[in-house]
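Q: How would the C-alpha cells look for this protein?
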Amino acid sequence: MSLQAMNRRTFLETATSVTAATLLTSRLGFAAGDHKIEKVGVQLYTVRDLMKEDFDGTIAKVAQIGYKEVEFAGYFGRTGAQVRAACDKNGLTAISTHVQYDELDDKFPSVIETSRTIGLKYIVCPFIQEELRKSPDIWKRAAEKFNRCGEATKKAGMQFAYHNHWFEFLPVDGKLPYDELLKECDGNLVKMEMDLCWITAAGADPLKYFNQYPGRFPLVHVKDLHSIPKVTAGGAQNYGDTVDLTEVGSGLIDWKRIFAQSDKAGIKHYIVEHDHPKQPLESIAKSYEYLNTLRW
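A: Here is the predicted structure in C-alpha cell form.
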C-alpha cells in the first residue's frame, strides 16, 4: 500500500471516528436537555381569594393558562361531586388536597370519602400548629398519626403525605424534625411533599434528602424567593408575608440542579405555589410559562 493511500485511509478512519463522537456527544447533549415537566400543577391556595368569589370561573381560568393538575386547600362549600365536575369540565386532574392536622383523627374517614369522590391520588397534611410543636415528643406522635392515616389512605387506594415549611429543618433537642419524620414514618405509608422554597429558606439542600431517601418525594411545591430570609422556629403562619417570594424562575433557586435529580427523588407532580401573590392569575401564569419551557 502506498503512503498516499495509507494516509487517505487513516484520514477517513479518523474523520469517521470524530464524526461519530461528535454525533454521540450531540445526542447526549440533546438528551441531557430534553427532560421537561409533562403536566404542570398548581396549588389552588395561590388563588384562594378568587376561589371564594368565583369557584368555577377560577378553575376555568387556571385551566386556560395551561395547567393540567391542581391541588386543593379547601373546597369553599362544594361537595366532592361538585369539585370533581368542575375539574372534569375544564380538563383538570385533581391530584391532591391539603388537610389540617386536626382533621386526621375522627374526621379522617370523611376526608377519605370526599377525596375518593373527587378522584384524588394524595391526601397531604400541610402544617403542624406552633402550639402543638411545643408539645413533648410531638414529632414522634405526629409520625405515629401519619402512619395510621397512611394505612387508612392506602386501603382507600390513595397515598398520604406531609408538606414541610422551614421549621422542620431547625434543630429540636439536637435533632431535625424532618429527619425524625423520615425515620419514624413508614416509607410506604407516608410520602413527602417537599416544599422546595421552604427547605431552601431554611438553608437545607433538597438533594441531600433525595440521595438519602430516594423515591420518598412524589410531590414537590415549586415556588421561588428573591433572598434567603432569617428563619425562626415559631411565629406567624403567613410565611409568604415574611419572605420575599416571587414567581418561579425569577428568584434564586436553581431549578435545573434540583429537577435533574427528579427520578432519584421520585417526583411525579410539580405543583406551583405562591402564598401571597399581588396578582394571583398573573403570578401563576408567569410560573407556568417558565416551567412549561424549562428543560434540563
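The two ends are 50 Å apart (CA to CA).

The chain has two domains: 1-32, 35-293.

Upvote if useful.
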